Amino acid sequence: MFRFYGLSLLIIAIDQISKWLVTKYMEIGERIPVIDSFLLLTSHRNQGAAWGILQGQMLFFYIITVLIVGFLIYYMQTQGKNSRWSAVAIALLLAGAIGNFIDRLFRKEVVDFVDVYIGSYNYPIFNVADASLTIGVILFLIATFIEDKRQKETEQP
Ligand SMILES: CCC[C@@H]1OC(=O)[C@@H](C)C[C@H](C)CCCCC(=O)CCC[C@@H](CC)/C=C/C=C(\COC)CC[C@@H](O)[C@@H](O)C[C@H](O)CNC1=O
């Protein structure tokens, strides 16, 4: 079970190294095309949450993140034991929440750089921590759904 915390640490390391590289080697607003008109590296900062909501509400973000991390660790200790997928989902969510928390603590803003165009729609620029959170949410929903299904099957005679 502790190896899942290792997964979180690995993702946090990747997140922080990628953000460090962006802040060190790119100017804010600088764009580097990776896959033309689909994927670019754009150095961006966000003092809010997804889609830039709640700009500058750092105290709110600290409180919310501590609550989320507390809940996830509790959930890892209880649910994480009996379902590998839940443990992986929690590890991803933990990594994402902590990754952005480190930015909010030391930079007072979050470093974003993954700039994706889906057709003409420009998805909000995000980072490794956001991707980990989003994948973690999806996995968490799937794992919870499968868990419920399995429990119902065992209960029925
Ligand atoms: C991913 C959650 C956002 C992340 O939440 C966090 O840190 C958590 C741990 C703490 C928040 C204060 C609390 C959650 C607020 C809920 C929320 O926001 C609803 C989100 C839904 C979500 C489905 C799960 C959509 C996805 C969006 C985006 C990511 O797409 C991959 C766009 C990211 C860009 O706007 C980028 O500028 C954001 C910047 O990096 C700061 N990131 C955050 O605030």
Automatic annotation (TrEMBL):
It is found in: Cell membrane. Its main location: membrane. It catalyses: Release of signal peptides from bacterial membrane prolipoproteins. Hydrolyzes -Xaa-Yaa-Zaa-|-(S,diacylglyceryl)Cys-, in which Xaa is hydrophobic (preferably Leu), and Yaa (Ala or Ser) and Zaa (Gly or Ala) have small, neutral side chains. The chain crosses the membrane at residues 49-73, 85-102, 122-146. It is an enzyme of class 3 (hydrolase). InterPro entries: Peptidase_A8. Its EC number is 3.4.23.36. Keywords: Aspartyl protease, Cell membrane, Hydrolase, Membrane, Protease, Transmembrane, Transmembrane helix. It is a multi-pass membrane protein. The active site is at 112, 130. Pathway: Protein modification; lipoprotein biosynthesis (signal peptide cleavage). Belongs to the peptidase A8 family. This protein specifically catalyzes the removal of signal peptides from prolipoproteins. This is Lipoprotein signal peptidase. It comes from Salimicrobium album. The lineage of its organism: Bacteria, Bacillati, Bacillota, Bacilli, Bacillales. The gene is lspA.
